[in-house]
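dumping this here before i forget
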Amino acid sequence: MPFTWNENYSVGVKIFDDQHRRYIDIANQIDALSMQDGVNQEKILMSLIEFSNYAALHFSSEETYFEEYKFPGSELHVAEHNRYREKIKEFLARAQSPNADVKKIAHELADFAVDWLLRHVISMDKHYTDFFNARGIK
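structure:
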C-alpha cells in the first residue's frame, strides 16, 4: 500500500518538505514497480538509481543549509545521511548482481526508504525546524 504524506511529517521548511514528498513519491513508484509482472532488471535499476540520485540531492540541500547557517546539529545529522548513503549503495550492489531478485530488492528498498525517512524526520529533521524558522527559512 503506498505511503501517504501528511502534515505531521512537516519540518516547517518548505524546500525540505517538498523534497520529502517527492522522495516518498519515488519510493512509492519503486514499490509499485516491484509488484508489476514482467518488469526487467534494467527498469528497476534505473528507478533505484533515480531514487539514489534524488536522495543525494535532498541530502546536499540540507547539508548546504547546515553549512551556510552553521546549524549546530549538523555533524550528527550528516553522519546519519552517510549511513543512509552506504545502505543505498548496498541495495544498488545487490540489484546489479546478475541473478538478483530485483523485484524483491526494489520492494525492500521502498520499505526501507519510507521507514528511514519517517524515523529520520521525527528523530533528526524536526530538530532543525526552530533553528531555520528563527532565521526566516520556512
